[in-house]
Design goal:
about 575 residues; alpha+beta; Rossmann fold; 3 domains; seven-stranded antiparallel β-sheet; about 25% helix; Esterase; Mycobacterial_A85_antigen; signal; AB_hydrolase_fold
Length: about 575
């Protein structure tokens, strides 16, 4: 019996101590700050760093913060010091063969104007993509066999560096602008830049006395002006490429054809002659700033509105008046298009917000942050049902809201995951004592902080602000608010649009005189075009909204302004 008991103790001790460790060796780069990410994939179709996704087909990632880590010392990653997605603990990895890779997403130290010192990943031209950010260091994938019942240690050597990204070059029609923002530089305590890709109208060089309206497209960090090409589609492009999202073949050729068709329209005789811009304003939290002022991100709204846009208008002969500017965009860009119209009623002459991020926080996707107690689970006395996060047009669920947040937590703590939920928190939340955004909910449990929710409502709930301030700015907003959303938006963004529409219709003195429209069974990116499938209409924002605004501005522009000289 003593032998049996001794054997039992040995087995228990072995089970507790047996674990899988990954020892990471770094190149000699002095002190290192950042998020060390360990990724494991069951397949070799691409590097593991490109397979960390929302949804059922994701592979695994485990994260660990490095704070002034000496690069001459290896770092061991294990169950005790990492947090993972979709499996949270390294010890829970199933036995099997895996392709393993490690990457350090580097952080920079910022000494902000508010006195807070924070460590964040600065954008380096890639649009805040941790797996593509120049300067990040990583290892080549290796194949390992994991047996959770056996103590194992795998060595990973970081010897690769992501190279710099070449900036786009100017052409006849497209110019690229980058300026150092005085406002943002002062806030962040280091040089900060914002920019734009500018599409010039046909005849710009010939009509030197003409001044032009400004079409401002908001969206995710574009590498160049999107959807415009002076060359026809590549004749050799494969037609058998398949788009899983749209379930069609040959989509790359469709994209190229649409870009070329837009060039022909843009330079044709009947298209309005305007300046069209796509703004670049990546911040240390995301691929763009959401174009508003924020406690954690800084005065991006003012920098864009009062620094960047006037610079572009001066450089390229813009009219330079609020009525002569309009905003449009989808998703993040849809929220921004409406937000700047709301926040700066005198500076913009209309907005077209397609599939906007939540514009009413009573439907923050599938959460009412004011009434619900928990963001991850529906309230129940007997069971825990997770809130949905992503669906297709038939309502089939592929990710829950909790799962999406767990991915971001694995990628970065303190709202530094660089993804959707973290940027909403970084933009909308007040600053915490540690200098980072105060969480709207506990990232692990989903419990909502009602004080933070109240701050969100007063400052960024666009529907609430419109209703609250209509008596003050209604004359400035009248006829300028247009919202479009598919009624099967993948992220449930239509729920907030329903609530916003109800409030807008009840406004009076004056009536809102805008437009809200829905696409039947349309998914994310639907923009109000009932004549085309979503995979086409999402490529036609410029050609759709610029002519539409030119007609609408006849009703909203001040009497007596010049609406003809730029219509040559």
């Amino acid at each position: 019996m003593k032998k049996t008991f001794f054997t039992f103790l040995m087995l228990v001790t072995y089970a507790v101590t047996a674990q899988t460790n990954f020892t990471v060796k770094f190149p000699n780069q002095g002190s290192l700050d950042g998020r060390l990410l360990l990724m494991l994939s069951k397949n070799s179709k691409s590097e593991p760093r490109f397979q960390i996704l929302d949804g059922h087909d994701t592979q695994m990632v485990f994260g660990l913060n490095l704070d002034k880590w000496a690069s001459n010392k290896p770092k061991t990653m294990n169950t005790q010091n990492t947090f993972g997605y979709p499996i949270q603990a390294l010890k829970s990895i199933p036995a099997g063969e895996y392709y393993v890779q490690v990457l350090l997403h580097k952080y920079e130290t910022f000494k902000r104007k508010d006195g807070k010192v924070v460590k964040l990943p600065m954008d380096r031209g890639e649009g805040q993509q941790w797996n593509l950010a120049p300067g990040n260091i990583y290892s080549k994938p290796i194949k390992v066999t994991i047996n959770p019942k056996t103590a194992q240690n795998f060595e990973l050597k970081i010897d690769q560096t992501i190279p710099p990204i070449e900036e786009p070059k100017d052409t006849k029609y497209i110019k690229h602008i980058k300026i150092q923002s005085k406002l943002l530089t002062e806030f962040w305590g280091r040089p900060m830049f914002i920019g734009a890709h500018v599409l010039l109208p046909e005849g710009f060089d010939e009509h030197k006395d003409v001044k032009y309206p400004l079409a401002i497209f908001h969206g995710h960090f574009p590498s160049d002006f999107d959807g415009f090409s002076t060359t026809p589609p590549d004749a050799n492009i494969p037609t058998d490429d398949y788009s899983p999202r749209f379930k069609i073949y040959g989509y790359n050729k469709i994209v190229q054809q649409e870009a070329y068709d837009f060039y022909k329209l843009w330079t044709g005789p009947n298209f309005p002659r305007v300046l069209a811009i796509e703004i670049q304003h990546a911040c240390p939290y995301y691929d763009d700033s959401y174009a508003v002022n924020s406690e954690s991100i800084g005065p991006y709204g003012d920098a864009i509105t009062y620094e960047l846009i006037p610079f572009i208008e001066k450089q390229f002969r813009g009219i330079g008046q609020g009525w002569s500017r309009f905003t449009y965009g989808g998703s993040t860009g849809g929220w921004e298009a409406l937000a700047v119209q709301v926040k700066y009623p005198n500076e913009y002459g209309g907005c077209y917000a397609a599939c906007p991020d939540p514009i009413d926080f009573r439907a923050f996707t599938t959460v009412d942050i004011y009434k619900d107690k928990n963001a991850y689970f529906y309230e129940s006395e007997f069971k825990q049902t997770e809130r949905p996060g992503y669906r297709d047009y038939l309502g089939q669920l592929t990710a829950t809201l909790k799962e999406m947040n767990m991915r971001e937590l694995a990628l970065g703590t303190n709202s530094r995951g660089g993804q959707q939920w973290d940027i909403w928190e970084a933009v909308f939340s007040p600053v915490g004592k540690d200098g980072y955004p105060q969480p709207i909910w506990d990232k692990k449990t989903g419990v909502i902080d009602k004080k933070v929710a109240e701050y969100w409502r007063e400052n960024y709930d666009l529907t609430y602000i419109l209703k609250r301030d209509w008596s003050k700015y209604g004359d400035k907003w009248r006829g300028k608010i247009r919202i479009y959303c598919g009624d099967m938006d993948n992220f449930y963004l239509n729920n907030a649009v329903y609530l916003a529409e109800a409030e807008l219709k009840n406004l009076n003195s004056p009536a809102y005189e805008g437009e809200v429209d829905y696409g039947d069974r349309a998914e994310h990116c639907w923009n109000g075009d009932h004549t085309q499938p979503n995979y086409i209409s999402r490529l036609r924002y410029h050609r759709m909204f610029i002519p539409k605004w030119v007609e609408d501005m006849k009703k909203t522009a001040p009497k007596g302004v010049d609406l003809t000289s730029w219509r040559y």
